[in-house]
Amino acid sequence: MANSTMAGRAHDSRREPLWSRLFSSTYAGYRNLKPSRPLLPGSRYSGRYRRSLVRRICNYSLAVIGIIFLLIVLTSIFRPSYTRPPPHYLSLRNAVSQSTKSGRGNIRNEKVFIAASLYDPDGDLARGHWGDSVLQLIDLLGTDNVFLSIYENDSGRDGESALQELSDRITCQKSIVFEQHLDLASLPTVAVPGGSRRIKRIEYLAEVRNRALRPLDNQPGVHYDKLLYLNDVAFNPLDALHLLFSTNATEDGVAQYRAACAVDFINPFKFYDTYATRDLQGYGMGVPFYPWFTSAGQGQSRQDVLAQKDAVRVRSCWGGMVAFDAQFFQHETDVPVMGMQQLYEEDKSPARFRASHDTFWEASECCLIHADIQKPQPDPGNITDTGIYINPYVRVAYDTGTLSWLGTTRRFEKLYSWVHDILNHLVGMPWFNPRRTEIPGQIVQQKVWVPDGEGEGEGSFQLVDRVAGKDGFCGRPGLQVIIEHRKEGQKGYEEIEKSTGSTMEFASRVTSIIYGVVGTFMEKAAFGLEESRHAPKPHLSSSASILSSQTPPSILPVNTSLPASSLPFYPISSSLGNTMEDKETKTFPVADVDDTVSFMAAARSLKLPKTYGSPAVATAVDASSEKASTSMSRPESRVDTFGRGDDADVFATSGQDTFDDEWSIKADAEEPEEKPETPKARVSSVAGDFKIQDDTAAVVSAGPRGSEAVASGQASEVEDRENLTTFKNWGTPAARDKPGITYPSRVRRIIIRGLPAAWCTPAKVLSLVHGGNIESVHVHGNGTAHILFCEHEACQAFYDKYPNGIDLDKERRVTVFVEMGKEVDVVSSQLSFNLSVGSTRAVRAVGVDMDASMTQLYNMACGSGRKVEKILDSYVPGDARNVVFRFCTIEDAVRFRGILVRDPEWEHCNVQYATDP
Predict the structure, then answer these.
(1) Burial class (CB in 10 A: 0-12, 13-18, 19+), 375
(2) According to DSSP H, which parts of 523-577 are helical?
(3) What is the DSSP string of 658-691?
(4) DSSP character at residue 422
(5) Dihedral, CA atoms, 661, 710, 732, 737, nearest 10 degrees?
(6) Strand, helix or coil at 572?
(7) Is the CATH code 3.30.457.10 the one for domain 87-181+201-478?
């Protein structure tokens, strides 16, 4: 009977529906539990309960996953997002597909001006998908209907050659301009805290965009109907036609807009250009995925997106590709263009990109251009239309892989809307903008940065009465400035922080953290093409370089960023890279000879022969190989390893150079402190400005060395030091030249002033110096260099040789001035010991592994804040690989050599000091 009952129950369970069995307590394993009996931790039911709970969680998870998958499939098939465009889109698509005639996509033969400003150091844009898409677009529009203007700067030889190749393929009227270096002296600057003047990032971006529009000024008699501005995006040429001719079209098929923007994506889900986009009421964007806009205010832009409109009303946008009504950008236009200086008076000057002139207020040039071409809004809270639209049917990406996915991910994006709304409320988006509701022309109170009048960039935030402009919705508090001397992997700009005196509220901190987590989750790991990335940046390449039968030595200057494409690629060795950095941090430093008197006594008792480690011995050992490195290497005046010329500095210093009498760090030469273990911060650590890298560097650079360690501006109190045992201050060091002192304390410093920006690097400065060993070299971004000789005689001889300065360029009359330090430079006991054993700034390693790439060697040499002048790598088949590391100070060289000789992975190498050139 029992067996029959159990069989019957099993039969019934097999007949139960799947849904009932998933959520049934019987199926989940609860039948044998007795809820009336207490479940103690040690009971025999605890294990069964845990297994049942895990089983139920798994079942629920599978059910949720199945439901989500089912919703995705059903939504993609029956309710896809932005995949069913209006009928006139299909008409244009058919016209393009059914003909091969040039201009088949431009039915009304409208004149189109296409503009683009590029930064393409590898030539991937001009030679790749972007260039091909532009050529196809020209063919669809008709060669007689198009004028193409491309401006490119600071992209190097590869970028220039690729642009020339593209220019040869273009069949329409064109203006292709390439500048080796953009002169920053013409750009406006702002005073920042600390006294220096910096160039705002938006000023730079507006300038390069405007240079692509310059041909419009040279064609007063030509009328264009549309202006299409392209970023470095991957796009479909047919989508560009839809943006130009299909957005917000009337019944007769004529597009009506002041501006129409595409939607750009940094990955298949994340909307990119949130900085320049504002909804119809001027609110900022929400979490950067569909439907992008928040429900703040009336939420009209969000409603337009959810309604699948092809013309989503906004106040500003960009999206990587923008179509404008060209009449706003041409001379003698009948349509008023509103700028900051005129609000209600008609200004018929052509619209151009610009930046905000407030110090601590930033607004994208791509947003300000829309503020200038739309009519003033008397009531920002009740705006119905601005003539500015986003067309979500037109989507672009910053790499071709993302572009290929956009057709798939858009189909089920309607499912995101409720999640998007919840996240917006959680993180508190949109962010508050105090100027969003300002009515143009009215007197308003604004909190602005007011300088204190002393010319040092200091000031405070104050409430002032001002006339409201029409671009308040574009901005946000902040200050972004161009970084003229960049490190590898560093952005082309930095944020200057200025505290307003108030503490951030706890809620603001929490929302910022949440948004940061969401942004990190949405962020793409590897970036392709990116919007507004005009500032030069390092690029990585996976191409391998094969050594020839005899490879000449390669000189590695460190005043430029380090693109791996210019260096041989080798597999990472276990002895290098991160492993080496980890070992380095655990290695004890070279013995500090100043620790105890007993250590110094022991060092002096060694009684090494005078010839041990002397420069003469080192010269004899290194003569042949050093000669080979000098003769076989390319001159620095031509092109270095990175393929850059003399003027390799990306940004030249602008404004007037100021030179200081004291060796001090000025505010314009300061950079945010970098962690010593950050490899990407190593490459240009000695480029241009004298930058603080870590705590050690801060100690060295923050205060002058030697005599300059005395507190400036205060006279030392005269003390009877002969009869006192303790002193109140260090006093002023005096010259010491007594018999028996090997390295007396004398003046050893040479100061070179008036260096051009291209010469503000240790490698360039040291090419001017000769006549003796160098203890250290420090270069300031304001055109001043300090060279500390090891011997006073060498310093004096160099100074006497150039009483009238050094001529860098006689034709251009470029001369730098040579001065001698006024204070005594004390020779420390550590330096004296280092010199006694033959230490120099150069460390030679013979027998280096062939699988060690130059990038790895450089990252290893720059660890712990060490500053490298250059690295010379020499290899001849049949001989051992010879690498010379030349540092900016002897101290760095001593510590680096100590690390190498202690490392078991380098024990097969002969590591010695090389001759200081």
Answers:
(1) middle
(2) none
(3) ---SS----GGG------TT-GGGTTTTTSSS--
(4) H
(5) -80
(6) coil
(7) no
CA 107 to chain centre: 43
Give residue 159's pLDDT: 93
Are 301 and 383 in contact, with CB atoms under 8 Å apart? Answer: no
Of 835, 814, 836, 679, nearest in space to 752 by CA: 814
Place of tokens 């002048």: 869
Q: Is the pLDDT of residue 395 over 80?
A: yes
Give CA–CA dist 157/855, Å, rounded.
21
Cα-based distances in Å from 906 to 625, 895, 902: 20, 15, 8
Domain ranges of the chain: 16-77, 87-181+201-478, 552-710+734-914
Q: Which residues pair with 314 in a beta bridge?
A: 279, 388
- Looking at the predicted structure, is the pLDDT value of residue 232 above 60? yes
The model's confidence at residue 350, banded by pLDDT at 50, 70 and 90, is very high
Retrieve residue 326's tokens. 């060209």
Q: Collapse the DSSP code of 874 into the 3-class scheme (helix H, G, I; strand E, B; otherwise coil) and give the result.
A: strand
| CA distance to 490, 674, 755, 785, per residue, from 782 (Å) | 21, 21, 8, 9
The pLDDT of 867-875, averaged and rounded, is: 84
* Cis peptide leading into residue 430 (ω within 30°): yes
**337 touches 267 (CB < 8 A):** no
Tell me the pairing of strands 197-198 and 190-191: antiparallel
Kindly report the CA angle at 738 between 737 and 741, in degrees rounded to 5? 85
**DSSP codes of every residue in 315-349:** EE--TTEEEEEGGGGSTT-SS----SS-SSS---S
- For the beta carbon of residue 404, count every other beta carbon within 10 angstroms: 12
SS3 call for 22: helix
pLDDT tens track for 591-640 = 444 444 445 555 555 544 444 444 444 444 344 333 333 333 333 333 33
**R_g over Cα of the chain:** 34
* 889 token code pair: 């100070």
Instruction: Read off the DSSP letter of residue 103.
Output: T
Which pLDDT belongs to residue 45? 54
% the chain with pLDDT above 90: 32
CA–CA gap between residue 879 and residue 687 (Å, rounded): 33
48-57, 462-471, 660-669: segment of lowest average pLDDT: 660-669
**pTM, 2 dp:** 0.53
